[in-house]
């Protein structure tokens, strides 16, 4: 994939959500997510982020 400013992507990943704490620059973020597997990555399409079944 080439670099495109403002490109919309759909990415599905698996990973580990770490417990609450201070993450990122100056501990500004309460959670950290570590990606362990990329399941799918492609250009985004209309409706990609529609709610799924409960």
Short description:
This protein has 54 residues and is mostly beta strands.
Total DSSP E strands: 2
Strand order of the largest sheet: 1-2
- Assign an overall shape: extended
Rounded mean pLDDT score: 87
Q: Which strand-content bin applies to the residues?
A: 35-45%
Gap from first CA to last CA:
33 Å
| Low-pLDDT sequence parts | none
The tally of helices reads 0
The SSE order reads EE
Q: Give the % helix.
A: under 10%
Walk me through this protein's architecture:
The protein is mainly beta and 54 residues long. The chain contains no helices and two strands. It has a domain of 34 residues. Helix content is 0%, strand content 37%. The chain has a two-stranded antiparallel sheet. The model has no long low-confidence stretch (mean pLDDT 87).
Topology:
Layout: E1 9-17, E2 33-43
């Amino acid at each position: 994939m080439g670099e495109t400013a403002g490109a919309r992507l759909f990415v599905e990943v698996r990973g580990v959500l770490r417990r609450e704490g201070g993450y990122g620059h100056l501990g500004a973020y309460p959670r950290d997510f570590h990606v362990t597997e990329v399941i799918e990555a492609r250009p985004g399409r209309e409706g990609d982020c529609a709610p799924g079944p409960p």
